[in-house]
């Protein structure tokens, strides 16, 4: 899917109006001079990866009142907690930073949607093909702003799997990029594998 998109984008570049007068044999030189003037050392990665320097940290919050985990940018939880006011309202505890993703749409990424069951009964995170097309999951509907971040839907560009674990008895979904943590939960007995949700950037990139 990403490669197809990249090839389409490249074809569109080559087909730019006004460039057709250039002899075909000159395209190699023309393309490499354009690439070097843009500072691209690796043409392939520049054309198939989103800019990692624009990715931001996503954290996981937990509400003991809802028995629900939710992933979002840290400021979202800060704002929710303060906006609640009342001590009897939902408070989100900070479970830790888990990965990096893009707060705005980037080339080669897809939207990560938040879907909700009822009012805070359960939340799941799934990718959709584009911003206008939320994924369909029985019993769930797109929640609030719905798009949490932009991620990859294939393991490209140094991304790692974002895995889901499900505690069905408590209608809770938990998310991690740590295979040991995922395996540990599954070994407990109450948790089952929710599969790979998306591909995201690790917190530290080498
Ligand atoms: C959840 O687990 C408890 C204790 O094991 C059990 O009593 C209850 O029926 C379970 N609920 C569901 C929905 O499976
Ligand atoms: C599984 O969950 C139920 C209900 O939440 C709890 O009573 C039980 O102790 C859990 N089992 C394990 C092995 O943690």
From TrEMBL:
Organism: Psilocybe cf. subviscida
InterPro entries tied to this protein: DUF5648
Residues in DUF5648 domain copies: 89-201
Keyword Signal: yes
Keywords: Signal
Protein name: DUF5648 domain-containing protein
Region forming the signal peptide: 1-21
């Amino acid at each position: 899917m990403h490669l197809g998109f990249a090839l389409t984008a490249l074809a569109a570049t080559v087909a730019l109006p006004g460039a057709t007068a250039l002899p075909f044999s000159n395209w190699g030189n023309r393309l490499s001079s354009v690439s070097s003037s843009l500072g691209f050392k690796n043409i392939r990665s520049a054309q198939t990866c989103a800019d990692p320097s624009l990715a931001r940290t996503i954290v996981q919050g937990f509400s003991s009142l809802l028995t629900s985990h939710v992933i979002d940018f840290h400021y979202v939880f800060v704002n929710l907690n303060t906006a609640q006011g009342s001590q009897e309202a939902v408070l989100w505890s900070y479970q830790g930073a888990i990965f990096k993703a893009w707060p705005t749409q980037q080339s080669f990424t897809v939207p990560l949607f938040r879907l909700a069951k009822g009012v805070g009964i359960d939340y799941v995170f799934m990718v959709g093909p584009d911003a206008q097309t939320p994924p369909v999951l029985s019993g769930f509907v797109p929640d609030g702003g719905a798009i949490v971040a932009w991620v990859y839907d294939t393991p490209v560009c140094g991304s790692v799997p974002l895995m889901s674990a499900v505690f069905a008895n408590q209608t809770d979904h938990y998310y991690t990029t740590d295979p040991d943590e995922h395996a540990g939960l599954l070994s407990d007995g109450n948790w089952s594998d929710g599969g790979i949700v998306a591909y995201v950037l690790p917190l530290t990139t080498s």
